[in-house]
Write a structure and sequence with these properties.
Layout lengths: L2 E6 L7 H14 L3 E5 L2 H6 L3 E4 L26 H13 L4 E6 L1 H12 L4 E5 L15 H22 L2 E6 L6 H9 L4 E3 L7 H14 L5 E6 H7 L3 H12 L3 E5 L11 H19 L5 E6 L2 E6 H6 L6 H10 L2
Parallel strand pairs: 1-2, 1-4, 4-5, 5-10, 6-8, 6-9, 7-8
Antiparallel strand pairs: 2-3, 10-11
The structure holds adenosine-5'-diphosphate.
Length: about 325
């Protein structure tokens, strides 16, 4: 293989730049050229390319977002677009592609591999909702950002003896909310994977902890709860205030969670994954996804990876419930 491409697709995540940098540097080390495909699959269809080399990926390892841009490209779900993308790659001498993104992007990589462009995917999403891997690039940075933001909220609710109901991004998964909830000392945590009852899991808990002297409360709610049940943090806050008498406010953290300089963990894991992805392509592998099991970087077939099912860590959830007295 003489030339490969790299793209970032779907939602951005801190650490994507570190992955792209590692892809480029590893390819250079192995004597291959690298084309940066801007704006994900959309850029592949539109031949929106830039040359990446060992020097022009300097100064990006510490930056959030993605310097080669990202996009959603709905038409890529169709066969015609995938065939066109394979032709575009062939015309430009691109013999393999590294795709950094979530499981939607993996499906695109699988389709490209099936139509003759060898692809290796890297899990890049703040949500950590990808079944086949214990870790996704961006999760640690995002978790630290949520913790820092909620720590600030705690200062103000503590001063006013209030309750703050915080909506945390995370698509349909509760990993960010559960981990952040433990880190910020939340009184209640609502995630889509675990059935809940607002009366029992939130109102009663606030009443009980208030009776033991607590006077400020943090309730962490995954956005997946709103997606699934339609209930908003504002509605939850109103209910808390009505039923407990504690003044309650709500906040949606939203996109502020996504930005910021990647943490050490995200930079290191992204570098390892980018390095591994290029070695897989160089060895002639296709339709693979780089994953992390425990602390080990390995790889899976994308089809098998997409069929696995991920469950929330019940021990971690029980721990959160028992220590939030
Ligand atoms: P993520 O990769 O973060 O899960 P999306 O689900 O939005 O984000 O997917 C990113 C892009 O991957 C989509 O815009 C589309 O181009 C491509 N994609 C998503 N689902 C499929 C699919 N079923 N088949 C082919 N390509 C897909």
């Amino acid at each position: 293989m003489k030339k490969i491409g790299v793209l970032t697709s779907g939602g951005d995540a801190p650490g994507m730049n570190a992955a792209v940098r590692a892809v480029v540097r590893t390819a250079c080390y192995l004597g291959m050229e690298v084309v940066g495909v801007r704006y994900g699959y959309k850029g592949l269809l539109e031949e929106d390319f830039i040359e990446l080399n060992m020097r022009n990926v300097c100064d990006i390892i510490h930056r959030g977002g993605t310097k080669i841009y990202t996009a959603r490209c709905p038409e890529f779900r169709g066969e015609e677009a995938v065939r066109k993308a394979v032709d575009v790659a062939k015309k430009n001498g691109i013999e393999g592609l590294v795709v950094v993104g979530g499981d939607g992007s993996f499906r695109g990589a699988r389709d490209l591999s099936n139509f003759g462009l060898p692809c290796v995917a890297i899990p890049g999403t703040i949500d950590n909702d990808i079944v086949c891997t214990d870790y996704t690039i961006g999760f640690d940075t995002c978790l630290n950002t949520v913790q820092a933001l909620v720590d600030r909220l705690r200062d103000t609710i503590e001063s006013h003896s209030r309750c703050m109901v915080v909506e945390v991004m995370g698509a349909r998964a509760g990993y960010l909310t559960l981990n952040a909830g433990i880190a910020v000392g939340a009184t209640a945590i609502l995630i889509p994977e675990i059935p809940y009852d607002i009366e029992k899991n939130v109102i009663e808990k606030i009443r009980r902890t208030a009776s033991t002297g607590k006077h400020h409360f943090i309730v962490m709610v995954a956005e997946g709860v709103r997606f699934r049940d339609g209930i908003t943090v504002d509605e939850i806050a109103k209910k808390i205030e009505e039923e407990t008498g504690v003044e309650a406010r709500s906040i949606v953290l939203g996109h502020i969670q996504r930005g910021g300089s990647p943490s050490v963990r995200d930079r290191v894991v992204a570098s390892q994954m980018g390095h591994k992805a290029v070695h897989l392509l160089h060895e002639g592998k296709s339709n693979r996804v780089v994953v992390m099991h425990g602390e080990t970087i390995t790889d899976h077939d994308i089809n098998e990876a997409l069929e696995m099912s991920k469950t929330i860590d019940k021990d971690l959830y029980n721990c959160a419930m028992e220590i939030s007295l």
